[in-house]
Amino acid sequence: MDMSDATRMNQTLRGMLREGEPMAKHVSWRAGGAARIFFQPVDVADLRAFLAHLAPGMPVLFLGLGSNLLVRDGGFPGAVVLTHRAFGDRPLVLDRGTSGLSPVACSAGAGVPAPHVARFVAKHGGGEAEWLAGVPGTVGGALAMNAGCYGGETWNYVTEVETIDRAGNLHRRSPGEYETGYRHVRLRSDAEEWFVSARLAFPAGDSAAAMARIRELLARRVATQPLSQPNAGSVFRNPEGDHAARLIEACGLKGFTIGGAQVSPKHANFIVNTGPATAADLETLVDHVQATVEARTGIALVREVRIVGEARHG
Length: 314
Known about the structure:
The chain has helices spanning about 5-10, 45-55, 115-125, 140-145, 205-225, 245-250, 280-295, and strands at about 15-20, 35-40, 60-65, 70, 75-80, 95, 105-110, 150, 150-155, 160-165, 170-175, 180, 185, 195-200, 255-260, 260-265, 270-275, 305-310. It is α+β, with helices and mostly antiparallel strands. The chain folds into three domains: about 5-80, Uridine Diphospho-n-acetylenolpyruvylglucosamine Reductase, domain 2 (2-Layer Sandwich); about 95-225, Uridine Diphospho-n-acetylenolpyruvylglucosamine Reductase, domain 3 (2-Layer Sandwich), CATH 3.30.465.10; about 245-310, Uridine Diphospho-n-acetylenolpyruvylglucosamine Reductase, domain 1 (Alpha-Beta Complex). The strands form six sheets. The protein has a five-stranded antiparallel β-sheet with strand order 6-7-14-10-11. Helix 3 runs antiparallel to helix 5 (about 205-225). The longest helix is centred in the C-terminal third of the chain and has 19 residues, at about 280-295. The radius of gyration is 20 Å and the shape is globular.
């Protein structure tokens, strides 16, 4: 895509289109290189038009709140689609169409922050959604990785998803079309599609009790996680029967620092940007923690964060 392509796209699209957008502005680690093309669509029709302009081989990355992502310092050589505050035609609403399936059902666009869903469900008398208040990402991100915390997991509540493919075609898919597990989601057909919205169903609950539980969970997050420093959430998945944080701490890595990246002294499964960290600092520290834990315990931690893009050369 050259400048004339971008100029032509800008004339036909209604959303925000930029070239060379610094991804450090959009990921919660506050580090990393630039995206070749960056687009925030107004609605799904705008997104369909954008995808239609892309070269077939151009990499595409969908981004919500950027809480589970690192873009290397050399940048992302493709198109980034920002879903947060996009998709105005896919709001968070009670889903009358599926109300017969559950006491509380709702539809939410991929760009809706997960904590908004927690409060929405609680307000409307639903239960078991309180844990979503602890997910620092969007519905789309939660769907893509089967996000979970405090005993809840995204795909336990999904009744249907809406996706879009590279050609701009929309699809409605059932949970049965996906292979899901702990922090794992894969479309069984292996087609390249991205989440646009979801229908979620929750059992009945008590609004006052649910809101109190949300406040309790948020207070626990503040007390146990380094929320005042740029971080990407939990860096590693918990191995079966254990916790990544316990293993990392047992290896004496709490507070370990490479450049501006540090294993949080507050929670060992968080790596924080102390201010000057580059994406390379963060990735090097992730690799060091992974290698150290495996060498000392024999357990190979699996990354929960996604690392994309190209290293900076020279």
